[in-house]
Specification:
Elements: H1 2-18, H2 41-55, H3 59-72, H4 100-113, H5 120-134, H6 167-175, H7 181-188, E1 195-197, H8 203-206, H9 223-229, E2 239-241, H10 253-259, H11 266-273, H12 275-284, H13 295-306
Antiparallel strand pairs: 1-2
Helix pairs in contact: 2-4, 2-5, 3-5, 4-5, 7-12, 11-12
């Protein structure tokens, strides 16, 4: 626990000295929002995440993806958590998300300690940060004060980035949320942890673009390994690490794999083959820019930026009693 707080304080100090605008974004969220109303809020969330992570480390990428998917649809309002036949979580891109039980655990404990105070949207933002730290990644100060949305529709998930999207389409989708090209590359770098089902990339191995061959951007030495993991007529649900040999550790090896033609998803590998994004991949591989900033530092900043997309604050929205249902 000591290492966790040392890392958190070090990153927080960097943010306060170097980029104060990311700590208080002027949208009603701020770091320490619950310092008086629920002083143990962040530690309760952290404990819930750690407890589940210790028995199942796959909750780390699950929580990170869930936060991303929540923010890209109607903003960071916890709408991804709502149950319902036509709710967001039922949309195709969201059906394989995991980690809901972590949010439920944290909410139950928070309602016992501070009834009606901490939003589900904030729990998810905090849990994503804590999950990254537990996976070996950086910590960052999470502005809180979001309120929960009252609408959750699967049809609204159509603007989520897709695994076949071109770089231009990816940039358009990120720009629509106020995120630039560097944010795109940085946040996709979150694929350093987690897995993908074969169904989302097997077409690259056997019949790319309706041909009989593989995607030419795949390293030829890597192709047999992928084909053995995902046979042409094999189990579509089988999981493969998005960061070869390092899917459980948050680091920058994901970018090295892109450079070496070992990206799993087509949309990921395009970050290297497109010049507008390749620059940032190279930067995270050691060609550092102004101030020598690294992937770890940039990731925290982009996460703060993303976590403030279209947030509900003040009297907008609500504080759900149960994260899976509107009050």
């Amino acid at each position: 626990m000591g290492n966790y707080y040392f890392k958190q304080m070090s990153i927080a100090l960097f943010f306060l000295l170097a980029v104060p605008a990311t700590v208080v974004l002027g949208q009603g969220t701020r770091v320490g929002f619950y310092s008086r109303s629920c002083p143990r809020a962040e530690s309760i969330v952290q404990s819930a995440v750690r407890s589940r992570f210790n028995s199942n480390p796959t909750v780390a990428p699950g929580l990170l993806r869930m936060h991303f998917h929540d923010c890209f649809v109607q903003g960071c309002d916890g709408s991804i958590l709502i149950n319902g036949d036509d709710a967001e979580k039922m949309a195709g891109p969201n059906r394989l998300l995991r980690g809901y039980e972590v949010i439920d655990d944290a909410k139950t404990q928070l309602e016992a300690a501070c009834p009606g105070v901490v939003s589900c949207a904030d729990i998810l933002a905090l849990a994503a940060r804590d999950a990254v730290v537990l996976a070996g990644g950086p910590g960052w100060p999470v502005p809180t004060g979001r309120r929960d949305g009252r609408v959750s529709l699967s049809s609204d998930a159509s603007n989520l980035p897709g695994f076949t999207d071109s770089i231009d389409v990816q940039k358009q989708k990120f720009a629509a949320k106020g995120l630039n090209t560097q944010d795109l590359v940085t946040l996709v770098g979150g694929h350093t942890i987690g897995t993908s089902a074969c169904q989302f990339f097997r077409y690259r191995l056997y019949n790319f673009n309706s041909t009989t061959g593989a995607d030419p951007s795949i390293d030829t030495a890597f192709l047999p390994q992928l084909r053995s993991l995902c046979p042409e007529n094999g189990d579509s649900s089988k999981r493969v690490g998005l960061d070869d040999r390092s899917e459980n550790r948050f680091d920058n090896s994901f970018f090295a794999n892109l450079r070496n033609g070992r990206g799993i998803l087509e949309s990921d590998q395009k970050l290297w083959t497109d010049g507008s994004t390749k620059t940032f991949v190279q930067r995270f591989l050691g060609i550092r820019g102004l101030l020598g900033l690294t992937f770890s530092a940039e990731f925290g900043k982009s996460m703060v930026k993303m976590s403030n997309i279209e947030v509900n604050t003040g009297t907008n929205g609500e504080i759900r009693k149960v994260c899976s249902a509107i009050n």
